[in-house]
Amino acid sequence: MNYRELGKTGLNVSEISLGTWQVGGRWGDEFNNDNADKILNAAIDSGINFIDTADVYANGDSEKAVGRLLNSRKEKIYVATKCGRQLNPHISEAYTPKVLRGFVEDSLKRMKIGRIDLIQLHCPPTQVYYRPEIFELFDRLKEEGKIANLGVSVEKVEEALKAIEYDNVTTVQIIFNIFRQRPAKLFFREAESKNIGIIARVPLASGLLTGKFTAETTFGPDDHRTFNREGAAFDKGETFSGIDYQTGLDAVEELKALFPGKDISHIALKWILMFKEVSCIIPGASRPEQILSNLKAADLPSLTVNEMKNIEDIYLNKIKNLVHNLW
Prior knowledge:
It is a single chain. An eight-stranded parallel beta sheet has the order 3-4-5-6-7-8-9-10. The protein has a two-stranded antiparallel ribbon with strand order 1-2. The longest helix is centred in the C-terminal third of the chain and has 19 residues, at about 305-325. The mean pLDDT is about 95. It is about 40% helix and about 15% strand. Strand 3, helix 1 and strand 4 (about 50) form a beta-alpha-beta unit. By secondary structure, it is of the alpha/beta class. The chain has a single domain (about 5-210, about 265-300), classed as Alpha-Beta Barrel (TIM Barrel). The chain contains twelve helices and ten strands. Helix 1 (about 35-45) packs across helix 2 (about 60-70), helix 1 (about 35-45) packs parallel to helix 11 and helix 9 (about 245-260) packs antiparallel against helix 12 (about 305-325).
């Protein structure tokens, strides 16, 4: 396992880490505690030391599973969680220091820990980034010893740029993958200049970049890849990175032609690791075997200049016009 510095947090984290949106099983399934425990322990056994979760994942069950892990292992494990998405309606006016403080304290209780290594605002409405009192709250929580660092998870590059104007923001979690390349063009340089840790989420574009889907692939009714393709439940960009399914399949076929016989998911993860500004990637897993597969990407040789150019050409010709100016 290779480790990278998570910006000015001072934490050295596994470059391929773990996101826990689906740690309790497949999307839409009832949360399976045994499955979650197996996945989380497999992650630590393989050298992963950074786990990303959120209070809304499985209505808190994901945080509870992470808490069981923390309290049963001796290794140093860094935990990032998120707050804010519980609010309904999810509007800026609902964000108050009192409410957010309650969310943080609830997360501490669920995980049975005294301090959160990294608390992140969970894709808040854009207006929240223009409310200094929200960001000031986390200075007080840090003084009280309840959090160590503040980060944000964003939908848009412009939100990321605004967030890092606040001195206490240490990390940004952003969608970055072969189908969503705009962050590298507009955000990475500014983030690096301020020593901001970059956490790449949705690295496989909701599974499109595994290369395993076809036009005949179906998803369950409770799977966001069924109900959120047009943004019915949350930001459209969270599902297949915002591109339509068939376009994604066509682009993946071109990737397969560039890398015959290779696992496209490994190529997709290695592509992200080619950007030195990225601190870590947080692919999800619904089975322990998926963790071991993801980690193989770190062992691949660096992609060549020509391979990087060919991947960029697919983005420019197939994808850019559909997503580049939206997120």
